Amino acid sequence: MTDYIGLPKAEVHIHVEGCFDADDVIRNCEQAGIPLRAPREKLFEAHDLKSFLEMLDWLCGTFRTREQLAVTAYKFARRMAKSGVRYADVIVNPTHWPHWHRNIPGMIDAFDAGFAAAEQDGYSPVGLCVSLLRTQSSKDAIELVELLSRTRHPRVVALSIDGNEAAAGRTGPRFAEAFRRAASAGLRRTVHAGESSGPEGVRDAIELLGADRIDHGVRAIEEPALVDLLAQRRIPLGICPVSNIALGVYPSLAEHPIDALRKAGVPVSINTDDPALLDTTLEASYAACAETFAWDSETIRQLAATSVHASYADTAVKARIL
Ligand code: ADE
Ligand code: ZN
């Protein structure tokens, strides 16, 4: 029986917004006099990506104070420890947070305080990927990169894009200049693509945005030449199999392309996306995939090692994990 918790691994595709405790959200609502969107058992209920992203806006809107953000970051690190995650790149999208999106430096500082306190207490290090929403403008994107370049907070490791590709049309050309500037400023670049878009979104992420990692990327499987490109250039995919089933990208794990991508030589890793909202854990995702695809222990160990190589941890941290 494989010990999925003990496996040395990183989580490289997970959102702060997907890791809330229901108790914290309810407490925020009580403190601020906000009516709950649904009874406790249905607080995290959504049926597709669109309703899921709307729910994120509501959940994040309950977080008003610096202390609430710092506690969220601390609890994030504690959640990672429970799954045996030795390093995490976590995505935060300021557009979901109505009380913070005009104070992004304050938001980063508050999360940083929580991650730093967690590390002091022995939890694993965390890097922050600050995300654009697909529907933002080219001007918004450049402003975010300028802000990140000016403030150069050591917690921030990457620029990211998330949100619904289907709602925003082709976004590669719109964000190309911002991504070029992010690369010049020394930021890494990770892009959601090939989840709510087809393979063309993955190609744009590589060719127009210079992504050095793709979040999801699974629908690249529909274009064999693109699969070859990912394999040849060793561009990692941060795949979230349980999320893809929950949000309707594939009907079942058996029909999910993670194993076909792995066999084609693409560096794939297993991640959770939004584990609290989707009621899953990283170890459960590993176990479900291993069972579905009959992976042996060496294959599982390699997938876990790929997650560490694909992460934005610095080389000393990677060496310590592997
Ligand atoms: N933000 C949080 N989860 C997401 C997902 N699965 N796709 C796009 N944006 C997201
Ligand atoms: Zn995601």
UniProtKB/TrEMBL annotation:
Adenosine deaminase domain segment(s): 8-322
Class of enzymatic activity (EC top level): hydrolase
Top-rank lineage group of the source organism: Bacteria
Alphabetic keyword roster: Hydrolase, Metal-binding, Zinc
Entry's EC annotation: 3.5.4.4
GO molecular-function terms, A-Z: hydrolase activity
PROSITE patterns on file: A_DEAMINASE
Gene3D superfamilies xrefs: Metal-dependent hydrolases
UniProt xrefs under Pfam families: A_deaminase
Cofactor: Zn(2+)
Protein family: Belongs to the metallo-dependent hydrolases superfamily. Adenosine and AMP deaminases family.
NCBIfam families: aden_deam
Protein name: Adenosine deaminase
Gene this chain is encoded by: add
